[in-house]
């Protein structure tokens, strides 16, 4: 399916610009890469969070049909990686929405993680938590995202993360914070338990669920197996100043000489290259309909002549692409020095790529000059892909305990989360159910909230059946004290 044009237009209307201060401190990235190997394995991550980790309930609001509790706790990442979490981010804030009366013996609760730009609690509370309470009698824990809302650093504008490393700090915080909240739920007799989110929140939910050693509902919406393509080939890449990242990458040898050797690109990029070349002719046909095509071919005698040039260069460009893609994952570096002088003049194919591939910025001073080096040869871009795969690819994390409780919702025409060249969820998590929408990322987010909710309800119904089946066999493990609603409030409101 073709990427949604609405996704691209919507992205260009937004003012968000990511990573305007660069990659982050090399020493911080090195610590994060090493710690990733710990929190990505259930057997090493789960023991890091005690089941009585201190959580403070600081506020209570009673409504006719439901009650809202607000709480906070210190993010465990600060305890295990001191100094890596900015001070405003260290306190995790969350909101609990639970019914005044549960309809049956179960007290299901789902953790809702934020998508990009989803600050504070009101959006998730209004669009998904309260409707789920009404439709499925499912409670909600709405966790404030690190670097968002009350956890946003003072010098950060909106959702504009300053450094690439902030994404990994965010992920590490959320993985461990979800474990804290899941323990809190169990201590208070809630269950079955689940986690969900949209877009970035969906992927963070996937990462968090991998470390819970019991059956857990997981409904990731509009996400996929890795965040690598989001920041390298999706429309989000238009919001990154690649020239600045590349300059920093080459100016500080720590990134290129040390950090680049600590990351690995998981999926073979050659698959994406083959797809690109296969669809290239179709892209040319569509491009002819655009006025930019006329501007691009100014100075040439006829359209026929230009098409002949493209045809004659096609074999050469294919060979270059094959040579590069076959080297992915072998620590081969394509540097400007290595490629200098290989192409004496820019081919028409390379010029056309300026219009087919997304530019990094609408500001001409920050736009990548593709005439200097082909897009697939940019070492900084491959470093970004390797970093994202290293820290976000689901192949690097444990398989969730019970994949039959996972229902993933994806948009077929998603231009934010490209799936070409990426491992599928079905391959990584055998038994998972993936549902596809005939929509783009933005349209799915706006038009299909009801489907997201119904999928969550369905997954929790599966969990209830599994819970009742296993209850007799696992009575010792599930023998948590069953507090009444009033006892719960007395314990966690009056105690502080």
UniProtKB/TrEMBL annotation:
InterPro entries, sorted: AB_hydrolase_fold, ABHD18
Name of the protein described by the UniProt record: Protein ABHD18
Organism the protein comes from: Glossina fuscipes
